[in-house]
Amino acid sequence: MSDDKTAEPKTLYPVPEAFAREALIDKARYDEMYARSISDPEGFWAEQAEALDWIRRWDRVKNTDFTGDVSIRWFEGGQINVAWNCLDRHEATRGAKTAIIWEPDDPKAPNRLITYAELAADVRRFANVLKAQGVKKGDRVTIYLPMIPEAAVAMLACARIGAVHSVVFAGFSPDSLAGRIEDCGSTVLITADEGLRGGRKVPLKANADKALDHAGGVGTVIVVRHTGGTVAMKDGRDVWWHEAVAGVSDDCPPEPMESEDPLFILYTSGSTGKPKGVLHTTAGYLLYASLTHKTVFDLKEDDVYWCTADVGWVTGHSYILYGPLANGATTLMFEGVPTWPDAGRHWEVVDKYGVTIYYTAPTAIRALMREGEAPVKRSSRKSLRLLGSVGEPINPEAWRWYYDVVGDGRCPITDTWWQTETGGLMIAPLPGATDLKPGSATLPLFGVKPLIVDNEGKPLDGACEGNLCIADSWPGQMRTVYGDHERFAQTYFSTFPGLYFTGDGCRRDEDGYYWITGRVDDVINVSGHRMGTAEIESALVAHAKVAEAAVVGYPHELKGQGIYAYVTLIAGEAPSEELRKELVAWVRNEIGPIATPDLIQWAPGLPKTRSGKIMRRILRKIAANEHDGLGDTSTLADPTVVDDLVGNRMNK
Ligand code: WT7
């Protein structure tokens, strides 16, 4: 017997035989389906589309062009309604099945189990409320809610009447909310009195009021009474949700939506400028979210499925709501956080409901791993059969802990690579088909054609490393940046003409497995949340005492990447601990807590080229404490600034 401590860690985890026998898709089937999806996309997707309920069949499956102005259209001529597909069509066979299990922040507070029939009626009723407020097909509705069932009801009610929802994560500041309301011109805002996270209250209504002080256009605010905290209600504008729905009919015919009518806008950060409104449309998105949900999570009728994301992110849209409900699954919605009241909370929830599929982020796994095995081992977790990971590359140590400790060595892990822009999972193992390698998202899903190119755009073959592109369209792809199609074409299709560029670096190994290496642009990934460095920089320079700022990511044990800010003060201002705290609070206030800088270094000067461009490569190295390999600094306007930055670096 080899001693475990000296043995090389296992790098290949074959599909467990028992799992493969029961799985929806085994290896042979994956190979055959994938090959077909690439050789005959129209035939493949037309066949898959039969799984949905159409009002009118499509005339043309795929009409997409990644060149020129870029145009992406799927299932043209078809008509369909997303809410109908997620709810009403299940009523006959699954009316009494639980659609949503809601587990509150406080483990002692009452939970809620909502059946498909109840959820369908709630959605139809609230859809009528929206109509009564004047909301019509194509109007935008902003949703700023905590993780409560009303968030699902509000989103689906929009889908039912053809309104376009824009969900803003409840952790964003009033300013961020205002910017997103204005950008898409919402007329209605849906919020709650307060949110609850880890026992702490989040003043959502007060934030919404501040946002509306300087964002025009919103005539109605619908407020969910959640905590019962006191909030100000503005006459003629604000209405309580429970009062608005009282006595309203639950009869509301679904709006026939064209396949390419917008379903939702979701703002996400890029490498430049303000957040972009990623626009997803109706039929292709729903088909892609539901097919990937079913196959990657090997969904069976009796599964209890739990995705721990927030509905404020795309993972919540596609894999708490639309994918699972379209598939008639039981989806768990959790209001709280993994570490409160203690680090055993998630496993208690797993046991409480017999969760079979658990889908979370590496940052959560690392946070729980730090607390040791005891809080995990207090629970049985016998119900679990499949684990998932999303949001950032999962380091092999965390992968193995997840596999061995959480899954007791029994549950495959599906590491899912995708983006807000892709609408659904793109590269991920099918648990009954794909042997696993810790740290690799493995192989492409149906219809996905990854291409790795070098910096000149030359496609690379075989084992290689470079920039990850996708060579052809898939139904879940975003269609445009809301209100700015040129920015869409420019951001995603101009770096490598004719290809969708993901912004990620990637390696392909000798078995054809993909290993995402992280962003190659100025986007950083903090705890699985995407932040544009430019956004944080503009927040910093908006402070009266800041002359200039440069923000980079650096390796962070729990968060994956932390936020490292170099700040140059205006002449006459002196650095102090107090000012440092003030700037941290300032950024939290401008953007939201997720943008909180971890480290701020006072920089008398920033390394710039003679043409005035900040050399971020150097700043990243210093932040990563890799200043020995700074490379060529001779092109800098003033090479001495580097010595100062290295000498005073924060990450020692
Ligand atoms: C970026 C997209 C849609 C998922 C939630 C985040 C990184 C996401 C993985 C993964 C390695 C990953 C990429 C991507 N990412 N999942 N499994 N392995 N990296 O969505 O905010 O749009 O961020 O997250 O860098 O580009 P997002």
TrEMBL record:
Binding site for ATP: 391-393, 415-420, 504, 519, 530
Annotated keywords: Acetylation, ATP-binding, Ligase, Magnesium, Metal-binding, Nucleotide-binding
Coiled coil start-end: none
Residue ranges occupied by any AMP-binding enzyme C-terminal domain in the UniProt entry: 535-613
Description of post-translational modifications: Acetylated. Deacetylation by the SIR2-homolog deacetylase activates the enzyme.
Cofactor(s) the protein needs: Mg(2+)
Residue sites binding Mg(2+) per the record: 541, 543, 546
One GO cellular component, as annotated: cytosol
Alphabetized Gene3D superfamilies for the sequence: 3.30.300.30, N-terminal domain of ligase-like
GO molecular function: acetate-CoA ligase activity; AMP binding; ATP binding; metal ion binding
Residues where CoA binds: 197-200, 315, 527, 588
Modified residues (N6-acetyllysine): 613
A Pfam match: AMP-binding_C
Annotated AMP-dependent synthetase/ligase domain residues: 88-473
GO BP terms, alphabetized: acetyl-CoA biosynthetic process from acetate
Catalytic activity: acetate + ATP + CoA = acetyl-CoA + AMP + diphosphate
Superkingdom of the organism of origin: Bacteria
EC number: 6.2.1.1
All residue ranges annotated as the Acetyl-coenzyme A synthetase N-terminal domain in the record: 30-86
Family listed: Belongs to the ATP-dependent AMP-binding enzyme family.
Function field: Catalyzes the conversion of acetate into acetyl-CoA (AcCoA), an essential intermediate at the junction of anabolic and catabolic pathways. AcsA undergoes a two-step reaction. In the first half reaction, AcsA combines acetate with ATP to form acetyl-adenylate (AcAMP) intermediate. In the second half reaction, it can then transfer the acetyl group from AcAMP to the sulfhydryl group of CoA, forming the product AcCoA.
Protein name: Acetyl-coenzyme A synthetase
